[in-house]
Amino acid sequence: MKKLIIFSSTLLLTAAVFAFAVAAQAWNINGKYNISFSTNAASGIFKTFKGTIAFDEKNLAASNFNVSVDVASINTGNALQNKHAKSDEWFDATKYPEIKYASKKIVKTATGYQVTGDLEIHGVKKEFSIPFSFKQAGNGATFNGTFKVNRNDFHIGKPGGDVDDVITVTVAVPVVKA
Amino acid sequence: MLKKLLLLAVLAVLVGVLSGIAGVVYQKVYIETVGEGFVNIASVKNIIGACLLGAFVAAIGYFLLSLVLKGKTEMVFNMLFVILSFASILGPIGFKLPLEQEMPELFPGLAVPMHFFPALGWFALRPFFGKSI
After folding, report:
1. Number of H helices, E strands in chain B
2. With contact defined as beta carbons under 8 Å apart, do A101 and A68 qualify?
3. What superfamily does domain A23-177 belong to in CATH?
4. Any chain B CB within 8 A of the CB of A75?
5. pTM for this entry
6. Is residue B45 part of a domain?
7. Which DSSP state fits B43?
8. Which pLDDT tens digits describe chain A residue by residue (178 residues)?
9. Is B99's CB within 8 Å of A36's CB?
């Protein structure tokens, strides 16, 4: 009887550990994503976005995002603005070629989900939360999110001036099951 | 007066069409050279339309100046046409292309020279009209 209890307990514990540690569904980023930003003075997109996404609505603890944006892929639609944005006054694309985001925690909210993680822009890393929604359809799904970033927090450009301090970022990332 | 207006209109059409054709030819050369012609924005219709518009504005300007300046019209008009052509290059330099358009940095190289074509066309064809206008 004692052996049975020990065996059962071990089995339960193993199952619990396994259930907790099971990896969330991995997703591959579809090429038709949209990473856009807008301010009063300029708006545009980042054309190159990559990374790994693991997300399971039923297992948020095991879900995570580790993504990056190629700064040099910025496109405002205007050559002068592109050059200006990549210069050392703004993103300094040569020195800081990537914008990185690594999640630490994902929680469910009333409207969808919120991911908290480290956002690194222009060499400055800060904890940053992003609200997002997740809509699944068959083997595919789409992550959508809109949030605001204060460029002064990341020492991008000079405070004030013609461009708003707060930049609105919109993210739409279609994914397919890996 | 009516004859002068008619001749100016003819000159404007000739300048517009000639500079438009020059613009389209330049675009073809540009595509062959750099591999991008921005044909969705700078379509044949848009190029010729813009050149005709520029030539007609020039003709109206010439007519109005001639009413005021008489004998000095040519000198002032030519100078103004060159200055305004130079000033107009700010348009393509500041132009915001659709975000899906690749290589926007090549757009000024296509559009800026085209802004001088109506002036070149005018300077080439104007002498054929002598003192009639």
Report:
1. 6, 0
2. yes
3. Lipid/polyisoprenoid-binding, YceI-like (2.40.128.110)
4. yes
5. 0.80
6. yes
7. -
8. 566 566 555 555 554 444 445 678 999 998 899 999 999 888 999 999 999 999 999 999 999 999 999 999 999 999 999 999 999 999 999 999 999 999 999 999 999 999 999 999 999 999 999 999 999 999 999 999 999 999 999 999 998 888 899 999 999 999 999 9
9. yes
